[in-house]
Amino acid sequence: MEPLFEAVAVHKHFGENEVLKGIDVAVKRGDVLAIIGPSGSGKSTLCRVMVGLEAFDRGELRLHGKTLANVSEKGRVKWSEDSKKLRLDIGMVFQHFALFPNMTVFENLALAPRKVRGKSQAEAKKLATDVLSRVHLSEKRDAYPSKLSGGQQQRVAIARELAMERAILFLDEPTSALDPELVREVLVVMKELASAGMTMVVVTHEMSFAKQVASWVVFMADGEIIEQGPPDQLFGHPTQQRTKDFLATPEDLV
Ligand code: ADP
Ligand code: MG
User: Residue 58, CB half-sphere, CA atoms under 13 Å: how many?
Assistant: First the structure.
């Protein structure tokens, strides 16, 4: 099966700091790819590059088998002609959710489908209603974000991407800003999305989530992929010493 999304030989530096040293990632439809690794290894930068928020120096991004972006001889990122439309298929959820504070949950969900996807009011309403039930927040439809817990806000942020009918969702440590008791409800929603076939790339410190839910795990350190494989193999039988060392470190020190 052809990958839905690919990053090919992606390089990126900040000044002297080479943050991504030739990263290859391929995600098939329905895959849940977990990216793990120590702080500073380039996970967030890679995510930001893959969703188009950050320029890169060398390499290529592909979606649905088509070139989305590559880099010119002069080192400038060139977006393909249809990239504007293609990029609508890519969603991202950040560690710090950013809902519009002056809009209700429902308005937060219905806005982009109408403005960006050109949905009718009735279609946007149906979408918003459907995605709210998928994140188990139907009763919060008319609440303002400030009245929600962090876990609920993050679930609305996920629902907002679902309402945009993304083909692939990138989540960068979606639970790491949450109080511990709110982490589970967000992981449960992500697990349900995975079971429903949503294609996801998740940067996470939640190793048990990665073990249970991921179809493929990538371990990064110092801007490189050190090791990757199915979760049973990567967690059960890591082959690289750096992977072993990382997995042996207690989670609260990562
Ligand atoms: P991770 O998400 O794995 O913790 P990051 O992608 O955030 O890693 O960071 C990788 C490296 O890139 C770090 O050395 C970090 O300091 C550096 N970095 C990240 N963003 C920037 C930026 N905007 N400007 C300069 N350096 C950055
Ligand atoms: Mg990060």
Answer: 10
